[in-house]
Amino acid sequence: MPNRIVGLFFLLLPLSFFGQEAEKAANSVLSYARNFTSTLCSPEYEGRGYVNHGCRKAGALIVDEFKRNGLLPYLGNYDQAFNLNVNTFPNQCKVKFGLRKLKPGRDYLVHPSSAGYKGVLSLKSMSAAEIMNYRMGTAPSKTAIAFVAGKVLSGDSVKLVRSKLEKIAQTECAVVEYTREKLTWSVSKQRFKFPYITCFDTLQRRKDSKINVNIDNDFLSRYEVRNCFGWVPSVNPSDSIIVVSAHYDHLGRMGKKTYFPGANDNASGVAMLMSLSRAIQQQPLQNHSVLFVAFAGEEIGLEGSFALVESGILDLKKISMVLNLDILGSGEEGITVVNGSVFPQFYHRLVQLNESIPAVPVVKPRGRAANSDHYPFSEKGVPSLFVYTMGPNKNYHDIHDRYENLSFDRFESLHYLFVRFLNRF
Ligand SMILES: [Zn+2]
Predict the structure, then answer these.
(1) Are 313 and 78 in contact (CB under 8 A)?
(2) How far is the CA of 304 from the centre of ligand 1 (A)?
(3) What is the mean pLDDT of residues 229-250?
(4) How close is the Cα of 80 to the center of ligand 1, in Å?
(5) pLDDT tens digit string along 138-150?
(6) Rg of the chain, C-alpha, whole Å
């Protein structure tokens, strides 16, 4: 039905009917997304990392959900297995100065590449210059080099010192870094030989000459994870595929008491992926099949999307567009479109559609960036956009990125914007 006639049809309906129906539909998009996000962030899924197989459990949940929503497998499969190496902290994760216990995630982080350690380390304070000039092979045993970033050093200098400290932890001795920066965690596919601990800087902590560490560590080699697929064929026969994607993995656990829920990053994007997959399954696109992909291994270096692009499972020449979704839980300050300036025709279409709704106050273009799963596709020349929301929620890769801290402010209107965008192809 052409749009004009649809419009007329709606005009003829009593207003109360339209109001109720619109409200029902909106509620269901938002409540579905909220439910799915809160499930993915619950302790059961362990921050969707590798300790206690959190990522595997989340992958199984997503495949079940695709099936429940009536999506089909892609070439007979709902998933694609691949392997990665990952450094994990499964059990004890305790750090003490004297009798004072530090709170994991609030007072300190274990460097994602850190080794485990059990025992007391003597702290040997060094300035930035001493660290930069440090000659390997001179550390006494059971010593940790202690570094205070302080206020005098520029951000770039701190980065340089930090990379030297990482080299020291790789081969030489333990490292303790005191910082006033926000504690932001990550996940790593390598392991140093020695522990590396980052503490939030307080004067009291700096006074101590010893640190008591009990960190369990397990390096997993060739650990199996899965990308998950849901397929909606086009109404008319067509070779063209649109890929809609979001990564479902996050950082997992740092010890048995602390996990990183990854609500905004990227339970929210997976919830959008699922809500879009429901809508498109109910009303498939005329001339494009849609492959919904929930990627694993993103946080560790886009491993899932590289695994898919390099597998040959997908004929890249048939992909008309990739729409990748990551960090969809806010939107008060608009959205950013990575690759917006690389594929301007796609970006402008999104801007125009937004103006007619409008779903968000700003649609900001950005250039090429290797910051999410669109990247392996766009590097192969496949038109790919990556959309993330902007807003006051700055909880990123920390223990505060929790479901309760998401506003979902523009979620529902973004859902409709994306549905329209997909239908305009
Ligand atoms: Zn992410």
Answers:
(1) no
(2) 12
(3) 98
(4) 20
(5) 888 899 999 998 7
(6) 24
Collect all residues with Cβ–Cβ distance below 8 Å to 354 and sequence separation of at least 6: 360, 363, 417
Sheet holding 384-389, edge to edge: 79-88, 218-232, 289-295, 241-247, 319-325, 384-389, 335-338, 363-366
Closest CA to 315 of 240, 401, 235: 240
- pTM, rounded to two decimals: 0.92
Which residue's structure tokens are 């503490």? Answer: 199
Give the span between the Cα atoms of 4 and 124, in whole angstroms.
75
DSSP string, 247-279: E----EEBSSS-EE--IIIIIHHHHHHHHHHHH
185 to 219, 222, 251: CA distances (angstroms): 17, 22, 8
- List pLDDT tens digits, range 99-113: 889 999 999 999 999
Residue identified by tokens 């849609």 is 290
CA of 23 to the centre of ligand 1 (A): 30
Domain topology for 92-215: Glucose Oxidase; domain 1 (3.50.30)
Question: Do the beta carbons of residue 267 and residue 199 sit within 8 Å?
Answer: no
Contact 54, 223 (CB under 8 A): no
* Domain range summary for the chain, segments of one domain joined by +: 3-86+221-423, 92-215
Strand partners, 174: 144
The predicted pLDDT at position 76 comes to 97
Task: Using the mean position of ligand 1's atoms as its centre, give its distance from the Cα of residue 299 in Å.
Answer: 7
**Could you give the 3-state DSSP secondary structure of residue 301?**
coil
Question: Ligand 1 (ion): which residues have CB within 5 A?
Answer: 265-266, 326
* CB-side neighbour CA atoms (13 Å) of 188: 17
Distance 79 CA to ligand 1 centre (A): 20
Residue 321 neighbours by CB distance under 10 Å: 20
Ligand 1 centre to CA of 335 (Å) is 15
Q: Report pLDDT for 152.
A: 79
Indicate left, alpha or beta for 254 from its phi (over 0: left) and psi (-120 to 50: alpha): beta
Q: Which residue has the tokens 């959309």?
A: 387
- CA dihedral (153, 155, 159, 160) in degrees, to 10, reads -50
Find the 327 Cα to ligand 1 centroid distance in Å: 6
Q: How deeply is 16 buried, as exposed, middle or buried, from its count of CB atoms within 10 A (0-12, 13-18, 19+)?
A: exposed
Give the class (CATH, top level) of 3-86+221-423: alpha beta
| Cα-to-centroid distance, 95 and ligand 1 (Å) | 28
Least confident of 40-54, 139-153, 222-236, 357-371: 139-153
